[in-house]
Amino acid sequence: MICPKCELEYVDGVTVCPDCNTDLVTKEEFEGNLLHPKDWVVVYSCDNAVEADMLKSNLKGADIEAIILNQSDSSFPAVGDLRGVKVLVKDTDAQDALAIINDINSRS
Ligand SMILES: [Zn+2]
User: Fold this and answer.
1) Angle ∠(59,65,69) on CA atoms, nearest 5
2) Euclidean distance between the first and final Cα of the chain, in Å?
3) Alpha carbon distance 34, 48 (integer Å)
4) Residue 68 Cα to ligand 1 middle (Å)
5) pLDDT of residue 2
6) In sequence order, which ranges of the chain are alpha helices (DSSP H)?
7) Distance between CA 13 and CA 16 in Å, rounded?
8) Ligand 1 centre distance from Cα of residue 20 (Å)
9) CA distances from 39 to 30, 61, 92, 100 (A)
10) Which CATH class is domain 38-107?
């Protein structure tokens, strides 16, 4: 569950944000409805959802929260004009995320 206001993730079972008392939403709801798209940056873009998913897992392993946006979603926010599937991370995690992505790509 995620607080749409703080954009923080909470464990299942928590339904209200302890910080701001906002009702939490599911991850699926949140991903299509970023309230602060400026806080997120696109670190990777491809046309393969499986590849994006794999990258997300790698980032999660490094404690970086990543979300995947698919342009086919009707609620897709206007983040640049790249096509296909995008992997986004928080602005503050962008440098670390890019380092991980470069590392992965240089190995493959
Ligand atoms: Zn909150």
Assistant:
1) 90
2) 34
3) 22
4) 21
5) 86
6) 27-31, 49-61, 94-107
7) 9
8) 4
9) 14, 21, 8, 20
10) alpha beta
For the chain (108 residues), the mean pLDDT of every run of 10, in chain order, is 85 90 83 70 87 93 88 52 76 94 87
Enumerate residues 6+ apart whose C-beta is below 8 A from 40. 34, 67, 79, 88, 89, 90, 91
Q: How far is the CA of 67 from the centre of ligand 1 (A)?
A: 18
Closest CA to 38 of 97, 84, 94: 94
Q: In the prediction, which pLDDT does 8 show?
A: 84
What confidence score (pLDDT) does residue 92 get? 92
How many A from CA of 105 to the centre of ligand 1? 35
Alpha carbon distance 61, 13 (integer Å): 23
Delimit the domains of the chain by residue range.
1-31, 38-107
Environment class of residue 65 by beta-carbon count within 10 Å: exposed (0-12), middle (13-18) or buried (19+)?
A: middle
Going from the Cα of 104 to the center of ligand 1, the distance in angstroms, rounded, reads 33
